[in-house]
Amino acid sequence: MSVYRQQTLPYQRDSAHLIRRLAALPGLVCLDSGLGDSPHGRYDILSALPSETLRTAPGASPAETFRSIDALLARHQAASPADALASLPFQGGAIGYVGYDGASRVGLYHWAIIVDHQARQSRLLALPQCSDDNWKQVQQCLSAPLQETPPFELEAPFRANFTQQEYADAFARIQDYIHAGDCYQVNLAQRFASHYAGNPLTAWLRLRTHVHSPFAAYMEAGDETLLSFSPERFLRVRDGQVLTQPIKGTRRRAEDPTEDRALAAALLSSPKDRAENLMIVDLLRNDLGTLCATGSVKVEQLFELQSFSNVHHLVSTISARLDAAHTALALLGNCFPGGSITGAPKKRAMEIIEELEPDSRQAYCGTFFHAGFNGSLDSSILIRSLVCRDSEVFCWGGGGIVADSECAQEYQECYDKIDNIIKRL
Question: Which candidate, 187, 259, 247, places its Cα nearest to that of 213?
C-alpha cells in the first residue's frame, strides 16, 4: 500500500462488537473511553497485528525505554496524512505500557479503528506501511459473524499481600519517615492475587459494562494480558501543548443520593485531601518545568470533583508547552512514574515504597500510552488495573499517606478503589 486508506464503519456507542471481532487477530490492543460517558473520554482506539514489538524486562530504565520507542517511531516514520485525518487522536504509531517496575510491552501499529463518541463516527484507518495482507485480515474479521469469547472464571477469592496488622506496621513506618523530615507523602499499595481459568478478554468486556473509566485499556502482550480501568490521565501532548491531570483525594460512592452528595461535599471541603492534592500538583509542575518552555507551566484548575462508578476523586489540571528540543516521549520518561502514585519528594518516596511493599508493582502505577508518528501522545496512570499471567491474576489498590492520615481509613480506601472490579470478575 502506498497511500493512506480509510473506511467509514457503522457507529455504535458500545465498541464491544468491534472488540470481539478483532479478538481473532494477534496482539489485540484497545484504548477505551468508558462508552464516552466522561468529558475526558471521547475516543476508543482499537488495533492488532503489530508490525514490530519492543519489550523490556523488570529493572530496565524507563527513560531508556522511552528513547527506544522514539527511535522505533523514527525508523518507521509515516507520510503526513490527509487533512481529513489530521484531527484524529491517533494516526498510527506506538501503543503499549511501561510498568512501574520498568518492564514494557509496546507494539508499532500501522492501522487502527477510531471511534469518536462526540461526533458519533467510527473510522478504520491504515497507513501506507500497512500490508495488503493485514488490511485483508482486518476486513475479514470485521465482516465475520460475531462470536462470543470463551468464559473467564476466578478459581479462588483474591488475597491481599498485607494483613491488616502488617499494613498498620508499614503505615507507622511511613509516619516515622514523615515526622523525621524524609518525605511529605508516600503512596502505599496492597497487591491482591488470585487464580483464574479462561480468557481475560471476557473478563475485561464484562467489567467495562459496569466500570466506565475514561482511560481504560486492554492489551494482549505474549505471556501477560493487561486489563485497566484507569480514571487518571498522566500526560497528553498535542501540537506541543501539554496537559496532565493528577488525582489525589478519594471518597467512596453511596447508593443513597443524599449520602453520596454528602460524601462528595466532604471530599471537596477536606483540608487534608486538598493539601495532598496540592503536593502532587507542585511535584508535577516541577517535573514538567524541566523539559517545557520557561514560564509556560500553569495550573488550570485545582480540586475539581470528578465522580466515577465507585468513588469520587479530586482532580487538578496543569498545562505547559513542550520545548521544541524535546519529544513527547522524552517528557513522559522525565515525569515517569507519576507523582500521584509515588509521593513527595518522588525519589525518597519511591525508596520507601521499595522498602515497605512486599511484592513488585509490575505494570501497576506505570503508564499506558499511544504515541503517534506526528509527535502526539496521550497516556494514563495504570491504577485500577489487573495483570493476568500463567493462570494468576493480580490487582492493586493504594493511597497517599500524609502526616494527618488515619490508618483505618487508608486501609479501607485500598478496598474502596478496587471492590467494584474484583467483586465483578
Answer: 247
What is d(CA 346, CA 147) in angstroms, rounded to the nearest whole number?
Answer: 46
Please give the radius of gyration of the chain, using alpha carbons only, rounded to the nearest integer: 21
Task: Just list the catalytic residues.
Answer: 232, 248
Sorted by sequence, the CB contacts under 8 Å of residue 268 that are 6+ apart come out as 303, 305, 314
Query: Are 69 and 50 a contacting pair, CB within 8 Å?
Result: no
DSSP code for 84: G
- Per-residue pLDDT tens digits for 73-104: 999 887 666 666 778 899 899 999 999 999 99
The answer regarding whether domain 5-150+161-422 maps to CATH 3.60.120.10 reads yes
> What DSSP assignment string belongs to 245-273?
--EEEEEE--SSHHHHHHHHHHHHH-HHH
Residue 65: which H helix or E strand, with range? helix 62-75
Whether 2 shows a pLDDT value over 80: the answer reads no
Q: In sequence order, what are the beta bridge partners of 95?
A: 107, 370
Q: Confidence class of residue 258 from pLDDT cuts 50, 70 and 90?
A: very high
The identity of residue 419, as a single letter, is D
Contacts of 168 (CB under 8 A, 6+ apart): 407, 411
Give the pLDDT confidence score for residue 310 in this predicted structure.
77
Copy the grid coordinates of residue 263: 460524601
d(C-alpha 146, C-alpha 334), whole Å: 43
* Whether the predicted pLDDT of 397 surpasses 60: yes
Its sign, for the CA torsion 14, 20, 22, 25, is: positive
Distance of CA 63 to the CA centre of its chain: 18
What's the burial of 407, exposed, middle or buried (CB within 10 Å: 0-12/13-18/19+)?
middle
Dihedral sign computed on CA atoms, order 14, 15, 18, 19: negative
CA–CA separation, 109 and 122 (whole Å):
18
Q: Which three cell numbers stand for residue 4?
A: 493512506
Grid cell of 403 as nine digits? 502526616
Q: Nearest-5° angle of CA 291, CA 292, CA 294?
A: 115
Q: Are 138 and 7 in contact (CB under 8 A)?
A: no
The domains of the chain are located at 5-150+161-422
Please report, in angstroms and rounded to a whole number, the separation of the first and last CA atoms in the chain.
42
